[in-house]
Amino acid sequence: MEVMKIMSLTKALWASVCALWVLILPWFLRQFNILGSEYDILTNWVSTIGLILLGVFIGILISEKKIQIRPMITFLIVFTAGFFAAPFVAVGILMVATMFPFSRGIEPLIFGGSITGYLLLYMLFWFWLKKKGIVKIGETN
To answer: Is 0.85 surpassed by the pTM of this model?
Structure first.
């Protein structure tokens, strides 16, 4: 209770973002060979500390009811399920398109175009839902 009296919502969110950067930055530095393999243990330690800090700050926000978690989790699950469905939709379209003789040799274009088209339609669908007021994305009470 006392922590949130000292720390406002914006400060806690900024602390969460900084903790996320502490979590991710060592892995990027290792991936781009800025840090060598001799720093693997340091990378793991710093990333673990960042993950713990991120969990603590997000836990503070949730426990103080600054973040409404149930609607956010529901929205997140539904939204990501649509994105994970994109390759399956593209494979289905590709399976139908390969039945036609004109599709030989352009399978990558059909696959990439169907994924792009599906994701654009999916995003337009979510913007339409937000415009109609059915889904309230990013709004707090």
So the answer is: no
